[in-house]
Amino acid sequence: MSIAYPNLKGIVAAVAFIVTFSGSGVAEETISGDEATLLDQLSQADPPQALRIDRELQAIWMKSGSASADLLLARGREALDVGDVETAIEHLTALTDHAPEFAEGWHARASAFFGQERYGLALADLERALALNPSQYEAIFGLGLIFEALGRPEQAYAAYSRALSIHPHHEEVTNAVNRLKPRIEGEAL
Q1: pTM given for the model
Q2: What is the percent of the chain where pLDDT is above 90?
Q3: The Cα angle at residue 79 between residues 141 and 170, in degrees rounded to 5
Q4: How many Å apart are CA 110 and CA 115, to the nearest integer?
Q5: For the chain, how long is the longest CA-to-CA vector?
């Protein structure tokens, strides 16, 4: 596989570092009390509780504190929903320019880049999103998807495992872990 991203090794290494050591980053100091409480509850919740807590966390993470930033995020997500990736990237780039400290903007744009198989750009955006919000399990899951697409199952498994440690009932992450586990455990033997 030929990848046209000259700094991909550095990006992958930096993102792997974030996945491995997220939980001790500076960004966690900015977690609100409500968010910290919800994250703690999520790690111990049963499936119905986890679904409710997940929705609450997503609602917190979707609020930037700026009406214009929230509008750009909404427009970017709407464009993604209808398959207009170029328009989504335009809105989400405007968002990351306008609100560079808003993790969800970087996460959303990473999703758009992933959809175009522009993995280097997606990884760079996820690196930024996770530097701002190391507990964003959807972004960590996205990292796993990219690592899988790049043929790096061990790193994908590590990312999925990290996401599952935060949200133990995340169905897609559980499926990914279960899919890779035999392969990873087989390589370890």
Answers
A1: 0.83
A2: 79
A3: 20
A4: 9
A5: 53
